[in-house]
């Protein structure tokens, strides 16, 4: 594996956009801002997106294996069969993280690698991979942060009904206990679910994510059972882990803006906030589903799948709340739409004739805000991150916050000398870190930032067509090349400060 030098002299100077309303001479947003000395600087990945080794050492198919091998589901027919081959190259990848000065690394565990049928006994070969990865991280002085579930449900559990079935939540708690028993002596920071909104509403509503089902009632059932799974898994982790271990969840709440201040547009924002955010924060943080959510979806389901004790089980004390943020949503009442049909998705991964917004799809329109966009077509608005951090600070007082995903896709490729320059990504990250710093200054307890992603990877339905990494991956040769953003981020992690121009 060939790496670029990481000396201070090699670190490129960023060329970020000035903040809105500023002259170019104003310099980078937030230049010179300092973060607390113990602030955690990391990067994130997920199992199916980087590991490869899809059929090795007893691993069985997940829903993403099946989905990506179904013609027409992913761009170019791409699959995660090899991805970044991290399963075989993890030691080199950890060495690269160390060279970049990362203090923490957030990864997910492949459920079907650890528990091939989704139930019953564990695969020790699968657990051994995560033991080895964790030991390598610890030896390098990098804090491991483990996510139990990043969308890769074992196919056998999907064949039995998947997340719309209650039993899947029970199986998830068993799986959590297996991983905790194996790695609890090594790992202190644990997250149960990553972005359950995507699992429920893109997997079972619009069908643009695995398993590709399109039933709005099933999407709501899946959301509830993911809430239940989080609570049961949290209980299982606390039973199995040392007292000092911390249990969290990673959510992708929506920063929703009404397009105008009319009552109709404000109501559209309320509806999307209920389906995007409060459907999870209600049970997890408050032990309830809000009445407006239940009323909005009453024609789709009567919510009779919510059993006595479920909401209490979902409402477990948390040691941290993790926020994933990329872009806001701008909505209006559907009769106010002026720019064509409303997009069916807010995260840009493909098109569908089905909506991920049960109860809102016929009455709410989405709008593309003006201004710059990333390669995903997502608008760039760091203020949404500050808003969300304040929201969770108010809603869960005393609970520390982490940003576990934030980043941008750009079409960056090596130049003639093999270097990869991505000033747009540097600008994006610097602006969002300035937004995090703003929240810190205003009293929000933010403990860490994990950039998405460590390296270019399998980007779900987009296959290998979108690059989020700060490390470029040539998927033919598996050559890793740190981009300008990697060298820039290494300097941020080293100094705890946003660089001057």
TrEMBL record:
GO terms for molecular function: hydrolase activity, acting on glycosyl bonds. Pfam families: Glyco_hydro_1. Its EC number is 3.2.1.21. Residues 11-21 have a biased composition (Pro residues). Keywords: Glycosidase, Hydrolase. Residues 337-352 have a biased composition (Basic and acidic residues). The keyword Hydrolase applies. Residues 22-34 have a biased composition (Low complexity). It is an enzyme of class 3 (hydrolase). The active site is at 405 (nucleophile). InterPro entries: GH, GH_1_N_CS, Glyco_hydro_1, Glyco_hydro_1_AS. Residues 1-34, 53-77, 337-363 are annotated as: Disordered. Belongs to the glycosyl hydrolase 1 family. This is beta-glucosidase.
């Amino acid at each position: 594996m060939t790496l670029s030098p990481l000396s201070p002299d090699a670190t490129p100077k960023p060329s970020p956009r000035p903040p809105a309303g500023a002259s170019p001479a104003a310099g980078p947003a937030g230049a010179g801002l300092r973060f607390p000395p113990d602030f955690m600087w990391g990067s994130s990945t997920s199992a199916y997106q980087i590991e490869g080794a899809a059929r090795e050492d007893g691993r069985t198919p997940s829903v993403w294996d099946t989905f990506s091998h179904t013609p027409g589901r992913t761009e170019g027919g791409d699959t995660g069969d090899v991805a970044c081959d991290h399963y075989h190259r993890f030691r080199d990848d950890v060495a690269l993280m160390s060279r970049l000065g990362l203090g923490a690394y957030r990864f997910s565990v492949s459920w079907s690698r650890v528990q091939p049928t989704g139930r019953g006994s564990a695969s020790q070969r699968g657990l051994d991979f995560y033991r080895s990865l964790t030991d390598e991280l610890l030896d390098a002085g990098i804090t491991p942060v483990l996510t139990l579930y990043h969308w890769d449900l074992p196919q056998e559990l999907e064949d039995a009904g998947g997340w719309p079935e209650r039993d899947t939540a029970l199986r998830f708690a068993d799986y959590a206990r297996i991983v905790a028993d194996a790695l609890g002596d090594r790992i202190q920071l644990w997250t149960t679910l990553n972005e359950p909104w995507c699992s429920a509403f893109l997997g079972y509503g619009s069908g643009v994510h695995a398993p590709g089902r399109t039933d709005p009632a099933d999407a709501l059932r899946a959301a509830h059972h993911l809430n239940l799974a989080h609570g049961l898994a949290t209980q299982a982790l606390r039973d199995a882990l040392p007292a000092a271990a911390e249990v969290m969840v990673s959510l992708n709440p929506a920063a929703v803006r009404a397009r105008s201040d009319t009552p109709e547009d404000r109501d559209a924002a309320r509806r999307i906030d209920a389906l995007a955010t409060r459907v999870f924060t209600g049970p997890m943080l408050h032990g309830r589903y809000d009445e407006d959510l239940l009323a909005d979806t009453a024609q789709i389901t009567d919510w009779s799948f919510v059993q006595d004790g479920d909401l209490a089980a979902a409402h477990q004390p948390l040691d941290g709340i993790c926020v994933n943020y990329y872009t806001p949503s701008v909505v209006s009442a559907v009769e106010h739409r002026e720019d064509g049909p409303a997009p069916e998705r807010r995260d840009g991964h493909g098109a569908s004739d089905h909506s991920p917004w049960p109860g809102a799809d016929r009455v709410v329109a989405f709008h593309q805000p003006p201004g710059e966009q990333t390669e995903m077509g997502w608008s760039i608005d760091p203020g949404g991150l500050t808003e969300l951090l304040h929201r969770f600070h108010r809603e869960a007082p005393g609970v520390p916050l982490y940003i576990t995903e934030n980043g941008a896709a750009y079409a960056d490729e090596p130049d003639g000398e093999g270097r990869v320059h991505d000033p747009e990504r540097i600008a994006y990250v610097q602006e969002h870190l300035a937004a995090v710093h703003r929240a810190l200054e205003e009293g929000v307890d933010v403990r860490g930032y994990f950039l998405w992603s460590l390296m270019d990877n399998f980007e779900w339905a987009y296959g290998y067509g979108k690059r989020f990494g700060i490390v470029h991956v040539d998927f033919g040769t598996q050559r890793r090349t740190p981009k300008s953003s990697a060298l820039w981020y290494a300097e941020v992690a080293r100094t705890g400060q946003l660089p001057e121009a």
